[in-house]
Amino acid sequence: MKDLKYVFYIGGTPEEVWKALISPEGTKQIYYGSVIRSTFQVGELLEYVGPGADGDETVHVYGDVLEYVPNQVLRFTHFAGKAYTKDDKQEYESRISYLLEPVGSCTKLTLIHDQWQEGDPHFENSDAAWWMILSNTKSLVETGKTLDLID
Hints:
- This protein is an alpha+beta fold.
- Helices cover 25% and strands 40% of the residues.
- The chain has a seven-stranded antiparallel sheet.
- This is SRPBCC family protein.
- InterPro entries: ASHA1/2-like_C, START-like_dom_sf.
């Protein structure tokens, strides 16, 4: 399967973009009410938890932290939460990398979702969702609010 790669230039500092991607205040807006639960220590668990099919504590995504450099890199393994995999006999692992770098007075945000396993049923939904999540990130940093993307 191909890698998913997205590059956004955002009118804000790496610290502002990082805060939107990592802080509870930012993730709740970008990820539709979810927050990240993690110590961000390499090898430790990372979970996106929020409202969903299993109630307010639905684990949407989880994995292990592979790399964490504040304001620069967050890389972790990716598994879909149990609410999304109830009928699957196999867990599919992939990897997510957020890479931030300053460009002039802006921040270049590169998201790479790679190391997909053949037949992963979450590939197409991930490709569609990342555009909305990253657009929300850009809008939040630049305007203080996210887009109205839910019907």
